[in-house]
Design goal:
Helix 15 links the parallel strand 17 and strand 18. Helices cover 32% and strands 25% of the residues. The protein contains 17 helices and 19 strands. By secondary structure, the chain is an alpha+beta fold. Strands 1, 2, 3, 4, 5, 6, 7, 8, 9, 10, 11, 12 and 13 form a 13-stranded mixed sheet that branches. It has a three-stranded mixed sheet with strand order 14-15-16. A three-stranded mixed sheet has the order 17-18-19.
């Protein structure tokens, strides 16, 4: 396949990056360009590549040998693992240029930037040579067809103009549609505050809730404080109750009580229960929405519940069987059924016949150390939490435990890199 010499930046988002021998390195998350003088096309400095560990690094364009429709190939598999930090003289093409409001010369007709083409020069450098724009046409201000223009035919692309004006998010959201919530969160974390707020305001409540759950604590609080109170309460309602409780616990009592008061009672009730426990106990770690069935439910009915694609994988590993009511706190806890057992039993049989009644449970006051030993001893990814009257009040999953065992700030730094001693500085540009 012939390598491209002109590539539209939006099509690079998410492309896998390989070394010369086919070894997988990561995925492209953005393109970095330097500021230009006057109306000259900016030079492309490199790409932001996300490693499998979620760390984002900078790869210079001189390391890129081929850009194909389905992959980017580097000249070497050895890359600098230093975490990417945007410098003052740099622009993120996907994060900061797409959806910018510009003018088309000579009349300065209002337009929006929908994509940017990178082109390789004779010196093997890459530059942002072409701009795909849509102009506003007619008295009603409708958008016209997309036009591809040279860089110097478009005005309003100075650094101060791009970073200071309100900016649309349609093209960036289109890129995010193909990404997991955790990857969107990593991208938002790296964006300037202005751009981060614009994206947050455009995301729907469910999607924003998924993304907020994956953000570092400081970013969570910053975004929540930026939203108006009604929208913040809606996002908290859409979050998993345990994640919402963790976030609210970091706010002042005044802010916490105000937002809880704006939430629907049925949504705030489980969050308030979680807030009554210390954050380093099973009660503070648990989710109050495990998979619960009554003893007369069939195996088929239990399997239908765990097939829910929105159910976290760890929660889907156990189905808890309780007397009515099924919502937590439930009636008397009878036992649980492991997903492997569900898959082995005839669909028409009752879950009561497949119960594991010997698995130990956790008390709400169990400290983190006890919860950790529990998971290690029983080789589980999910475990029941009971009150003193043997009612199921929630379930702790292994990801809840890991969140509290990992060092503070692990979301910002990502996971440990494969190479223990990365070079101290980024390569010169």
């Amino acid at each position: 396949m012939v390598a491209a010499t002109r590539v539209f930046a939006a099509r690079m988002a998410g492309l896998p990056v390989f070394g010369p021998d086919g070894e997988s390195i990561g995925r492209v998350r953005d393109v970095v360009a330097g500021l230009s003088i006057g109306r000259r096309p900016p030079r492309v400095l490199g790409a932001v590549v996300e490693l499998p560990t979620r760390r984002r690094i900078f790869v210079p364009m001189l390391r890129v040998t081929r850009i194909e429709p389905n992959a980017v190939t580097l000249a070497t598999g050895s890359v600098n693992l230093r975490k990417f930090h945007q410098r003052p003289n740099e622009l993120l093409v996907l994060g900061q240029l797409l959806d910018a409001r510009v003018g088309v010369d000579p009349a300065g007709t209002p337009a929006v930037l929908v994509d940017v083409a990178m082109e390789q020069t004779r010196t093997r450098d890459w530059q942002l040579s072409k701009l795909a724009v849509r102009e506003r046409t007619g008295r009603l201000g409708r958008w016209g067809p997309t036009r591809v223009l040279a860089w110097d035919q478009v005005s309003g692309l100075g650094f101060a103009e791009v970073t200071g004006r309100p900016q649309g998010v349609q093209q960036l959201l289109a890129v995010f549609d193909t990404m997991r919530a955790v990857d969107v969160a990593s991208t938002l974390h790296d964006l300037p505050s202005k751009r981060r707020y614009e994206v947050a305001e455009a995301l729907d409540d469910e999607r924003l809730a998924d993304v907020v759950e994956e953000l570092p604590e400081e970013d969570q609080k910053d975004l929540l404080s930026h939203l108006d109170d009604e929208r913040a309460a809606d996002v908290l309602e859409a979050m998993n109750p345990d994640d919402a409780a963790d976030l609210l616990a970091e706010l002042s009592e005044v802010d916490k009580n105000r937002l809880l008061g704006l939430m629907a009672p049925e949504e705030s009730a489980p969050v308030k229960r979680l807030l009554s426990y210390s954050s380093d106990t099973a009660g503070g770690l648990m989710t109050p929405e495990p998979v619960v069935v009554e003893p007369d439910a069939t195996i088929a009915e239990a399997l239908a519940l765990v097939r829910n694609p929105d159910l976290p994988v760890a929660l889907a590993s156990l189905v808890f069987v309780c007397r009515p009511p099924s919502a937590t706190p439930t009636g008397r806890y009878l036992g649980c059924v492991h997903i492997q057992r569900l898959l082995r039993e005839p669909p028409s049989t009752l879950v009561a016949g497949a119960l594991d009644t010997d698995l130990a449970s956790l008390s709400a006051q169990a400290p983190l150390t006890e919860v950790t030993r529990y998971f290690a001893a029983y080789n589980l990814v999910c475990g029941p939490v009971l009150d003193d009257e043997e009612h199921l009040i929630g379930a702790v999953t292994v990801d809840d435990v890991l969140d509290h065992l990992l060092p503070e700030g692990w979301r910002e730094s990502g996971l440990p890199d494969a190479e223990p001693n990365p070079p101290p500085n980024r390569e010169p540009r």
